[in-house]
Amino acid sequence: MAQVVPSAKLIYLVRDPVEKVLRTYRHARSYADWNENRGLAAAVCKPENTYVEGARYYKQISHYARHFDYSSIMVVTSESLETKTEETMSRVYKFLGVSAEFKSPVFRERLNVSSNRLFPNALGIWANRACQKWTGVVGSGTTSTFSDKRLFPILNNNKELGKIFGIPTRLFYTSDLPRPTKTVLKSLKTALKEDMEDFRAITNRSFDEWSI
Prior knowledge:
The chain has nine helices and four strands, in the order βααααβααβααβα. By secondary structure, it is mostly helical. The protein is globular, with a radius of gyration of 21 Å. The protein has two domains: 1-111 and 188-212, Rossmann fold; 119-174, no CATH class. The chain has helices at residues 17-29, 40-44, 50-53, 57-65, 78-83, 85-96, 122-135, 145-148, 182-203, and strands at residues 10-14, 73-77, 119-120, 173-174.
């Protein structure tokens, strides 16, 4: 990318790294065909797991820093984008060299809100795998091959779906997952501490609103 567009400006959107891990896990659990059926601790507390790796911001940004000057990289937090939307967007526009005065009501829209998700329980995961074996086709994402063919629409991640064979959707889903324990939170903070210290140093920002 640096060879093709050496003058590119990059925007790195981040959030509290502990919250990032937890949200990524919730996202994975919300899709039956992702086969993420482990409990939170088993999934995120193992050394070098993909959930924690995705929240190592210094490690991620350092790959780009080898090819781009830091003045070409802007770090934006999801927290500021959510709570100070217009102010944050103005800073983004200024960084990009365009008018910082542009505003739009679209900025206030919130799409794909995670609180609206349903999570397949053990029965839902089993049913999805059984359907995969039965059809020989593996679905992907929210609208799986099963729902497209109307073979097993209950596995589509949508609260409005009705019933299949007269079985209530709620039997296959739970509306929430257990909250992380203090042990899990401590483990995540320990795993992310060194990377977070390097990230603060390289960006010269404190990120005081974060939990680590």
